[in-house]
Known about the structure:
By secondary structure, this protein is of the alpha+beta class. It has helices at residues 7-19, 57-66, 82-98, 101-106, 128-131, and strands spanning 25-30, 33-38, 117-118, 124-126. A two-stranded antiparallel ribbon has the order 1-2. The longest helix is centred in the last third of the chain and has 17 residues, at 82-98. It is globular, with a radius of gyration of 16 Å.
Amino acid sequence: xxxxxxxxxxxxxxxxxxxxxxxxxxxxxxxxxxxxxxxxxxxxxxxxxxxxxxxxxxxxxxxxxxxxxxxxxxxxxxxxxxxxxxxxxxxxxxxxxxxxxxxxxxxxxxxxxxxxxxxxxxxxxxxxxxxx
Length: 132
């Protein structure tokens, strides 16, 4: 499973996209206000999870308590860490299962149409569960 392209490849792709504006935008309620974002299409394997994620913070603490061999800064020390991204993926998958999202989207009549919001470095600001 690919959990995000490596940083130089991801950064180059995003810089190339932004250099040639798509002309497409989408308005989204984000951080308490309606904002217009430029819209681009990227492969699903490009973005990386944002490990500093408020929604998963408590689950990360619990994960570290259960895996005492891991350093306390496991999720904070390296935002590119493959092992931290694999753990984050499992936490998000569990959260999606708990809220029945996985079940819901197995039905072909239900499609995920809301876009992800990415930083210029390709980290997901909004949509970590959707990416999962």
